[in-house]
Amino acid sequence: MTRTQVVMLLMSVCQLSIMHGQECPSRQELQNSLRQVHKLLSAHETSYVQSLRTLRKKINLLQTSTARQPAKPTNVTCPKLEAPANGKKMGKVLLPGHEVHFLCDPGYELVGSETRQCKESLTWTGQQPVCKDINECAPSPCVNGGTCENEVNVFVCICAKGWGGATCQTPVPTFFITITNTSAATAAGVAGSAGSAGSAGASVSPPATSSPLVRPSHCTQTQGTTHCTCEAGYTISGRDTSVCTDIDECELFHMGQSGRLCVHTCVNTPGGYRCTCPAGYNLTRDGRNCKDVDECANRQHNCTKDQLCINTYGGFQCVKVECPRIRNATYVKTSPLRCERNPCPVDNRACSQAPNSMSYHYLSVVSNLSAPRVMFRVSAMRMMGDTLRFSLLGGSRARRHFTVQRSDRQTGQLMLVSSVQGPATLEAEVEMSELEKRVLLGRYITKVTIFVSPYEF
């Protein structure tokens, strides 16, 4: 500080002191005060410089970490899930909180997670399911030396010689007749020009008949005894041993499920039979059972682009999923089989009481399906409240065939309680309500439609 600056500072300080009624400080006192101020400024300057250095380091670290991190995508979704072989995947939305459901084709059972949900971490819950072929030969249904061949949704028994029926349980008779102690005239009448009664090993074949249902027998004569046999599928009728008539296998093995030759219709043919299937089915390799044709997979349907093709036993159904129209609430379709409610205004209580989501599922079953039986499961992947309630909606028709039971804390199941004779279409609505201290947090409705076939296969 220069002399002039010191003088000016002394004058200023002195003027301030006089204004406050004090004496002017001496030169020594002023210098001491200035030294203290200088030290204070130096300390503040050092602290300020150190703060700037620390701030510069933090900024450099932030720049480095930002440069290393990849840019976060704007469209964050879970990885796409594929439908299992011999099964179907329902649900296309891959955003967090959304679910994907899996179903297996008839004749296959699901191994793995039936429902998977996209988590906030962009990973799926559960395990990828597979559809495993149900081994109908596991209980060894074929008897009397029959060999079982497993096919989709059915087993086929290859019977040993002399046995027939669906499980080789019915003996197939061999028809022949033996004539003993015959007179020469009788023998001659039977044998025709075969020679005398004493001829050994003579063979007689009467003239062929005109009807395909009647065939001549084949007779041999040995030491006065005549043996007459027929071709497979024919039998000697009455006392005329020279004529073989066709066996009506369809009538012979018609009574009783265990003795049925065909699962659907049996047509008698000369010396045998053949099985036929209704429209929508193909005959299996064993020639007795019928296998459903999947018109949806084979593109043999006439559903429009805005409809879903649902394969049923013996046919198909074209369905169109439309979101519900509820007063004071609106819905948007988030997948082909799911609608979710749009956000409600804060003061709109009626909207908040409406279902949060509506899911639609379609099942195909055979006629007279045994009951009780689990048809569908509804589960909460994560709970927001402290209580889940499951209930069956709908009228008396739904309650006559269905009930809802809880299988665990977070899962309810739709049960078929009585068998249904097809053709028929059944509908059931399962409601899952979530509560917190008895206050409703949300309602989720699953509508299940079941198409019952007119046939038991």
Automatic annotation (TrEMBL):
It is found in: Secreted, Extracellular space, Extracellular matrix. Pfam families: cEGF (PF12662), Fibulin_C (PF22914), hEGF (PF12661), Sushi (PF00084). One of its GO terms (biological process) is cell adhesion. Residues 196-217 are annotated as: Disordered. Residues 1-21 form the signal peptide. Its main location: secreted. It comes from Clupea harengus. CDD domains: CCP, EGF_CA. This is Fibulin-7 isoform X1.
